[in-house]
Amino acid sequence: xxxxxxxxxxxxxxxxxxxxxxxxxxxxxxxxxxxxxxxxxxxxxxxxxxxxxxxxxxxxxxxxxxxxxxxxxxxxxxxxxxxxxxxxxxxxxxxxxxxxxxxxxxxxxxxxxxxxxxxxxxxxxxxxxxxxxxxxxxxxxxxxxxxxxxxxxxxxxxxxxxxx
Length: 164
Fold this sequence. Notes:
Helix content is 35%, strand content 22%. It is of the alpha+beta class. It has a five-stranded mixed beta sheet with strand order 1-2-3-4-5, with helices on both faces. α1 (13-30) crosses α2 (42-56). The chain is globular. The N and C termini lie far apart (47 Å).
């Protein structure tokens, strides 16, 4: 298996839409509170917003391919540190992993590692001092994956359903 990593191209939009739909479907599947859903045209709308954010924040999208077939994607953006935040935190340039998806047939085969490496190299070139990622708490596989690459828990956002 030879996997290549390359940057997103406009012709990849349909694949990106499909990957975002599949990622959302997976999160819905593992949501124990059944609070998530995939509304009408979710992938198309989400991808449009994502591409706007990429353009605005000089982010980047990398695709993983095997024999020119897209099998995974990672999306990275930059977070702007607010001046008010400097009261509490040291000056920081933050790269954020917005989304990471690997086709289920290619998981546990090093695809995520290659995508992470490409994005981390990009963030280093852009002089980021930290990388953040948000992980849906029930997604223990993602939590374990990121932990393997040196990510540590920093903030825990808790939820309580008070009305069904």
